[in-house]
């Protein structure tokens, strides 16, 4: 495989054609059922061109996933936590912004997420997305509460719950064609995070 200049507009355009072709194919077929020939035919390029950019379809999907999740990670971190002073209101504001940036990113890439989060989508994407969410929540919680002995449940269980729930919410949102706005989604997740499941469900707890 030859090494391409990543800044060459022709290289960027060809890779985008190949990536778009794979994503389109994934909307109808499982990843394992898609061949390099399927991808090149859909992108209207020859096999030699494909192999000048990627080793195989597995290296290709890994790169696509990595690039997209780097963007997601950057979007969620686009909040300044340095001014947090312990005030619950300022914490809510920062959490709301982080959630908003999350759903803003998902909305901009809704077709991509809808296809790759399908049950027959490549497992690597769901797994890597979970890892990004988990790392982000772990760092965020550690920032606002550095004393793990204050946690009411084990820390790893807490992070797993939040990350898994958020991943499910993202899947629900894109699979149902985003029935709520990104602003509302951010507000809803903040309410659940802030109040807990039972209170959010309307139960009055003493």
Automatic annotation (TrEMBL):
Gene3D superfamilies: Tetracycline Repressor, domain 2. InterPro entries: Homeodomain-like_sf (IPR009057), HTH-type_Tx_Regulator (IPR050624), HTH_TetR (IPR001647), TetR_C_Firmicutes (IPR039532). Residues 35-54 bind DNA. The chain crosses the membrane at residues 157-174. It comes from the Bacteria. Keywords: DNA-binding, Membrane, Repressor, Transmembrane, Transmembrane helix. Residues 12-72 form the HTH tetR-type domain. This is HTH tetR-type domain-containing protein.
């Amino acid at each position: 495989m030859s090494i391409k200049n990543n800044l060459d507009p022709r290289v960027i355009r060809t890779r985008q054609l190949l990536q778009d072709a794979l994503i389109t194919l994934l909307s109808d077929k499982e990843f394992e059922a898609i061949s390099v020939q399927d991808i090149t035919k859909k992108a209207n390029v020859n096999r030699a061109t494909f192999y000048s950019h990627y080793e195989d379809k597995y290296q290709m999907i890994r790169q696509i996933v990595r690039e997209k999740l780097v963007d997601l990670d950057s979007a969620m971190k686009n909040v300044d936590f340095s001014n947090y002073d312990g005030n619950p209101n300022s914490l809510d504001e920062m959490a709301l912004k982080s959630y908003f940036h999350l759903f803003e990113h998902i909305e901009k890439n809704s077709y991509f997420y809808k296809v790759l989060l399908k049950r027959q989508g490549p497992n690597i994407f769901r797994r890597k997305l979970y890892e990004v969410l988990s790392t982000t929540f772990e760092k965020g919680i550690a920032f606002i509460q550095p004393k793990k002995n204050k946690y009411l449940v084990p820390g790893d269980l807490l992070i797993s719950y939040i990350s898994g729930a958020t991943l499910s919410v993202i899947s629900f949102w894109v699979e149902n064609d985003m029935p709520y706005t990104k602003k509302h989604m951010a507000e809803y997740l903040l309410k659940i995070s802030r109040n807990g499941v039972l209170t959010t469900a309307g139960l009055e707890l003493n």
